[in-house]
Design brief:
Layout (H helix, E strand, L loop, with lengths): L5 E2 L6 E2 L4 H8 L9 E3 L6 E3 H14 L18 H4 L6 H15 L2 E3 L6 E3 L6 E3 L6 E3 L12 H10 L5 H13 L3 E2 L6 E2 L7 E3 L6 E3 L4
Antiparallel strand pairs: 1-2, 3-4, 5-6, 7-8, 9-10, 11-12
Helix pairs in contact: 2-4
């Protein structure tokens, strides 16, 4: 319950206390007026809607998941999705708050490309990142690797740590699935479709024998 005389903890201007009808409207998700009083249920620190809206938007732009707490110094009361439905946040800020909830509860999958924490449906082996649209493996969170197991993919990552996930997948497929060989002079992958073992590299133009690369 809000105090009768409320002052915003950010701008120090007086806030309009909410009556029972205003609280009901806020609970249904309607945005509050800029000068209305807003408070978390736990700590009871009060901010005006304008300031707390700007605070959440600024935290979302920083991408710091750990900063989504009450803006009062030394208060660590968590701000969650249910607390901000009435703030009229931007789509990006709402996505940020939702992923903070998943991060806190350990229910999300962090994209290996952009680090956005996605919601996970346990029945799906593959999911698409809601932010960057990268297709991900829902088991290991790496880029989708349909032709090899998670264990083989990560083993290849460890031996080729400077490559991206896409590079690792290509190298593994080239060697294991497609049976390409590397030119011993410049390293470019070569495919042998037919003919003898004598090869001429298409990149460095040097000659080598298939089976020695």
């Amino acid at each position: 319950m809000l105090p009768r005389a409320s002052v915003c903890a950010i701008c120090f201007e007086p806030c309009r206390p909410s009556n029972w009808f205003a609280k009901l409207v806020r609970a249904l998700g309607s945005a509050g007026g800029d000068g209305d009083a807003w408070s978390l249920g736990g700590c009871q620190h009060v901010c005006c809607y304008k300031c707390i809206r700007r605070w959440v938007e600024d935290v979302a732009e920083s991408h710091r998941l750990d900063l989504l707490v009450c803006p009062v110094d030394n208060c660590h009361e968590k701000i969650e999705s249910a607390h901000v439905k009435c703030l009229g946040l931007s789509h990006a800020a709402r996505m940020f708050v939702d992923q903070v909830d998943r991060w806190r509860h350990g229910t999300g999958l962090s994209c290996s490309k952009c680090r956005y924490i996605n919601s996970v449906k346990s029945s799906l082996a593959k999911l698409k990142c809601a932010l960057c649209k990268t297709e991900l493996c829902s088991t290991c969170a790496s880029v989708w690797h349909p032709l090899i197991t998670c264990e083989a993919f990560h083993a290849a990552q460890q031996t080729q740590s400077e490559l991206t996930d896409d590079d690792v997948l290509f190298v593994h497929l080239a060697r294991v699935k497609w049976h390409y060989q590397s030119c011993p002079h410049c390293g470019v992958f070569t495919e042998r479709r037919s003919g003898c073992a004598a090869m001429t590299c298409s990149l460095c133009l040097k000659r080598w024998n298939w089976g020695s690369g």
